[in-house]
Model the fold of this input.
Amino acid sequence: MIILASVLQVDFVNQEMVDLLKNIPDMTWTPGIPAIFAGKSEEEVFMMIGDTNINFQHDLEPDLLEKEAAMETQELLEKAVLPDSFSWFDLKPECMRVRHITLYNESTGIMKTCPAYWAFASVGVFGDNRCILGRDPVRVNYSEQYRISCDNYAIDKIYSHCITGSNNYYHWFMTGNGLPTEACISYKGEYHNNYTKICPTECDDGSAIVTTTLGINKYYDGFLYKPNDISKEDLMKQYMMKFGSLLGSFDVYYDYLFYQNGIYQHKTGSLQYNQPVIIVGWGIENGVKYWLCRQNWGELWGESGDQDPENYDQLGYFRILRGVNHCNIEETCYIYEV
Done:
């Protein structure tokens, strides 16, 4: 007699953890099971969001130009009036694009294995800020796939950019190469194909690639060096008001996977990895200060950018505690003059 053994799948984002979180006092956010994670195993969840630590730490010493930029920033901040709340979502909603990443091949039903969220965050900031500052007359969708396939500064030869990458040298790629539009080179998503191994030399339709680059500017690599006597929080605010969305990162703990709405504060669960994120504003609610951020998990996750529970068309945002470097959200931020 042959006995067929079956393995019972354990949902990684499960009701047991939801119940635990709901019993924690003084919660400032609502836990639940996001639709994108429902019924998924641990392996499937991390295939969707990236099972690795993103190399996002800035390891370069500031040069003279960066130090001069920091001194000028200090002078600007001494004259600046920073409001209690500010949001590019409110001021320029037409520029805030929540990127919907299709993680399944619709024809085969097989999950795609190249999330590359480090690339989605940096390309998203580029598109945001060209729209915010009027460099593009409308919000242009630029190609994440081109950066995934072509940015040799950030490449991890083993993983072909799919689950690990770096934004440390983003400015080098963007000033030297730049990005075409998504209409030229669309997101392919599969790990085991040439799109993640070979930089394309023409658009998907065979036409010539035309790229848009960053300007050469005195802020060099965009890393926010903190001048003396200025808080990193105020520095981030000032740059955000002047240049647009910030490119940042934060530490993702297990409980964050259960976020539905509110101001996230880590309560329980182990560190999973570090996630790139787009910071678009700040505010305060019931005395709790927060950053408003856009995640790259699509519009079926998170809360609306204006926190309206009925605004289902603008999901993809979350808020996180501000001013205390919670989950290292204020540790490493970049801004670029587009």
